[in-house]
Fold each of these.
Amino acid sequence: MLKAFNMIRKILFVFLLISLFSCNRDSYPFIGKEVRETIVLSGINNVELMKAIVKYTNRKDSLKLEMCFYLIKEMKNHSHKTYLLRDSLGQLVDYNISEFNSINEVIEHKNSVINKSGEVRFYRHYNGEDVYKITGVYIVNQVERAFASGYYNIYEDKIGCELV
């Protein structure tokens, strides 16, 4: 029952997005041409990209919205690789790189795994184009981390916005 409800919600959301982009595009001037092109290119992942846009549109947070637009339009022609970390016995080592705050923490974690399990190696697991795989949650997290760390000034220069 819950799966059917979630599926219906997703279908309705996709229809909403289709109607959004098939109507007069001038009705949505806040979404630039390059961003719209990336959203269209993303196929079914457009739902994820729109989630990030909607989050900052609803909050009226213009600098974060502009940063979100910048990240989305820069997805075109970018890809990512996913690596798995395995110990000397071939067992997967559980880690999430985004949980570490610095390169020193990553090195400490790797050294602790080496002490427990012996040699560790990275193996390429997946290649993928960002436009098809990056989630709305990931975009929002990147925007929020940039603001929390003060790195939003880099984006400010690229998008030509001024801090209020």
Amino acid sequence: MTTPDNPTLRVVVADDQAAVREGLVTLLDLLPDIAVVGAAADGDQAFSLVEQHAPDVVLMDLRMPGVDGIEATRRIHDHHPATKIVVLTTYSDDTSILDALRAGALGYLTKDAGRDRIAQAIHTVAAGQAVLDPTVHARLLAAAAHPPDTPPSTPPDGLTTRETEVLTQLAAGHSNTEIARQLFVSETTIKTHINHIYAKIGAADRAQAVRYAYRHHLTQPYPIRLLPGNAVAGPRRDTLRGPSGRTTRQQHQPRAGRSRSGRRWAAGGRRGDPRGRRRSRRRWGAPGRGRRGRRRVRRSAG
């Protein structure tokens, strides 16, 4: 940590993009009163470097594989409250800002900030004061004017309405086949939507996409659409809506019919009554009547 004898601020840089991470390290090393003591590619490495070096400030990205910036900020704030955190990210949506500040970040900047602005933010948070990018500050004031937990009027990060529906169903635990049936599209179309969602939100797998959906309040289920005949558009075709509103499986009731012997069998009984089969064999297998009878007669005669 910084001491009166050594006023240089010790900084850890955390960013999953190697070019951005190395560029920030080079930029900060040019400043006389800032020393970079470590660089991390994800939130887990950032937390380990904080435990190892006890820096004054962490320059934290939000979207990183594994442990993201929000979770890393929360861990550092809980276990090392003396280390201050400045978020430096390309995302300035309301949810990302509020989640970072709630996790314990004292500063929030976007990546279009210049070197002087970043250096000023590091010194400001090291002194225990908050610092926000002007754009972030304006969005924060606008978000505070709306009721809490109000879903955003437009999907975040450029998601389309259909992609938002797919992400909501994905967060509910549905498979690609189930989502395709509920939205009345092909499974290939759902896979294409999911690939677009991953690219737009920076997710590497399904788990990160689900975490993103919960963070942005995109987990409210869409109403289930019913097929003709009151059947639910779901993974099973024999699913019905009962009088109580619960889903029940369709019971396949047996119907009356005829066995091979020509005798009728009642509904609920077993197809091909054994009694009918025995009578049929006696009738067609008796000597002198039918093919089998003639064959038996010939064999006995020989």
Amino acid sequence: MGGGLKLMIAMGTVGLVAVACRQIVGIHDDGSPLVDASDGDLGGALAYGLALAPGSCRACIESRCCSEAQRCGSSKEPACSALATCELACNGDARCRSQCTVDHAIGPVSSLPALEACAATSCENECNLQCGGSLAYIPPNAADKCQQCATVNSCSEFQACSNDAACLALYRCRYACVTPDCATACDSANDAGIAAFNALASAGLSHCVQDCQLGDDFACIGHVTWPFAKASAIDITLHVRNYSPPYAPVSGANVKLCAASDTGCVTPLDANGVTDANGDAHLRLAKVVDLAPQVFFDVDSPTFTPHRFYPGFPFSAPNARLIQEVAILDKALYASVWTQAGFPAPIAGRGHIVIEAALFSQRSA
């Protein structure tokens, strides 16, 4: 094959790539957008990929994030195209980006985090992505105040997560969860992003809890759909620790898994759970019942008060680890803690019930 023909083929390939990327980000050859996506209405643009309005953000995505835009804008992931187009059309407006996440609730999407990370890393100024843009997961009515707080107090942590596709994948996966075991399954599937995600969460909880309404978004009330079980049997790990500082794990506690209908736990579903040195008890739910909170845990130890823990949600992840720890009291401290809480002194020979309600964020409600 002659050198001239090889050069023509190479040039032709480069030209096709350039045209393809322009079409994927929604650009005609004359520079005009395929559709006007400024109002979030994609119309028929999904077949062409991302429909970005003219401007510096579109030009940057075209030149620096072409492959990421191509994967997101492909016909295989129309949900990615819809959400990415909506977010990038916001020109960095925090409330607008948050509303996009609500309007296009798509859960984990394989190609979206890579595009978002590229935009944060390479097009932050052009797309006006303050602190990288990961504030898109905040409730819309709190987004502006949250962005102001994050910019002052924890911008570096938000930026680090925004630049990390693994952190964004974990963030988006957790955002789509309605049960704690789903969230821990997200951690296992996206472990490369845990360090950056934990740093972001720690910074947010330290400085911006109220401004960002962390754990206080109740828009899901009346709209929760329990997930179906992803396996016929589920392995469950329950962590047990001492209620009192230094909150040491409790070893040697007996843990039984009981059906919710078996209030006395006469016939345990699994009676073989014993906490190890790390305070973890491993149990198996051999028959999964969909769409109902179906079990409770009975925890007993010679040195601690008996404890029952009702998760209040159906298990769905094949390997469920409960981040919500079961805190149980040393019998010697029971009376003093009971009194400090403002309850009447415990009556000898009688049982007592303490009920605590907690938000999904694990803060008391």
